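agent> step 3/5: call structure_predict on target 'DUF1109 domain-containing protein' (Stutzerimonas chloritidismutans).
agent> reason: downstream docking stage needs a structural representation; sequence fetched in step 2, passing through unchanged.
tool.input:
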Amino acid sequence: MKTDDLIALLASEVAPVDRHVVAKRFATALLCGLAGALLLIVTGYGIRADLAVIATTPLFWAKLALPAALLFGALLLTTRMARPGTRVGRSWALLAAPVVIVWVAALAILLTAPAESRVSLLLGDTWRECLANIALLSIPAFIAAFLALRGLAPTRPRLAGGAAGLLAGSIAALAYSLHCPEMAVPFWALWYLLGILLPGVLGTLLGPRLLRW
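tool.output (status=ok):
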């Protein structure tokens, strides 16, 4: 068989690729991850009793804005990692910007607060369980994000796994905000970010193993 004939034969068996396959896979992963986290919140933790009242305050929406902004940045980064040869671009900046903003706000609050109240602003009443709760709530999104990636073509599995972990942690922190009673900016600037980072580190470690072609 001639080379041209072989190429033509192979090309004739290629099915067209859905241009929106990445968007569809990650839309499904987001829905499954968020639904799983919310189900765990409702059945295992409970929605905070004063949610209707606290939702009228700007601080509550600022608290939600942190994981929501990180979710957007992590989603963009993860979808880029799912495509071979795609540049990361400004995805890292989208992740770093909300972190810098909330740290600046937290530092300003701590510096202007009385010295005796600074520890309570950082630790609150629930710092011991915050990390574990966010990590637990991230499990559905972590699984969904890795399943979405496995059906695609990430060429940098360690970075792709880390991005998927950050995505899962952001989803978990967003859901956890509906239960968490802590409203001090220094608290969620520290513990929410650490909670989001945990699945990110786990994803970085597992990426080469779970996303191997």
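agent> step 4/5: record observation. The chain has one domain: 21-210.
agent> proceeding.
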